[in-house]
Design brief:
Blueprint lengths: L5 H7 L11 E6 L3 E7 L19 H17 L9 E11 L8 E12 L2 E10 L2 E12 L1
Length: 142
């Protein structure tokens, strides 16, 4: 298993606090997949307004965390280092559960198609083995 800490992740993708949404990468294969984790704390800035009476991680931020995980996979591939991966679209997205303070979210994105700079990743976020979000993410490397 190939692991990456936060500093190593920052060498691959351009995101920084407060928008870097991956805490570490447990395993990855350049150009194929990455498995990362987000440890969700009550101190996350977005919980102040989403929602004060019942803190829930916004779904769009979960999608972004999955995209960042996929970006680690695609941008660690030889020839893509130093580039940026941009969102092209989201298909077949399903939200099946909430992410709340204290959750350790497993983020897995597998690259299922790529032609030139365009590609598609199959993304799944889960908490304690329960899928909370799944989607296909389209990206472009530029």
């Amino acid at each position: 298993m190939k692991k990456l800490n936060i500093r190593q992740i920052q060498e691959i993708i351009p995101h920084r606090h407060p928008f870097l949404l991956i805490d570490y990468i447990e395993d990855y294969e350049p150009g194929e997949y990455a498995v990362g984790y987000k440890c969700v704390s009550y101190r996350e800035e977005f919980f102040a307004g989403h929602f004060p009476q019942e803190p829930v991680m916004p779904g769009v931020l979960t999608m972004e965390a999955l995209a960042q995980t996929g970006a680690v996979a695609i941008l660690s591939k030889e020839g893509n280092q130093g580039k940026t991966a941009y969102f092209g679209g989201i298909r077949n997205c399903r939200f099946r559960g909430k992410i709340v303070p204290g959750d350790k979210v497993r983020l897995e994105t597998r690259i299922i198609r790529q032609k030139g700079p365009m590609g598609v990743g199959e993304a799944i976020a889960s908490v304690e083995g329960r899928v909370v979000v799944s989607a296909e993410l389209t990206f472009m490397v530029g």
